Amino acid sequence: GGALYISADCITQLSDCRFSTNNARVGGYGGGAIYTESEIKLSATNVFEFVGNESNVNGGAVYATKTIWLDGNVNFNKNVALKSGGAIYAPNGLVLDGGTFENNVAKEGFGGAVYVKQTLKKATTSSETTTLFKQNNSIYGGAIAILELEQNIQINNILFEQNGYVNNGLF
Length: 171
Hints:
With 171 residues, the protein is mostly beta strands. It is 0% helix and 51% strand.
């Protein structure tokens, strides 16, 4: 990760942080701001932001090898991945409870905002908590690319606005 690497030996929770203009350009897997080999929970009481981070591979802002949890007003804006997951690359699951994904790009791959395999969940039971995907772009899945699901998913309280793609919208 351009700013933070977290090993497999811990469970991490970060609150109300700002990761801006970090990059993962040399070798490796990606994660412009964070690369984590452990479960991670990103939560916002006020504001948690990932702005303008870049990866030369996957995960413009975050590459998480285990489940990543987003809780509250976590915002991803203008993050770029050369391949997949403009904001988040989550091959082992993502749990959403709020947040905003806006103007993220996966240049050559899947998921302008999010690339996820196996599990995508909307954690909230509140009908008032909404996740917004707006103006994200990629080749497949302008907002989200979901691959190899192990279970059915239910998408509710998620707004999709003006996301772009070359081949498929929600892949």
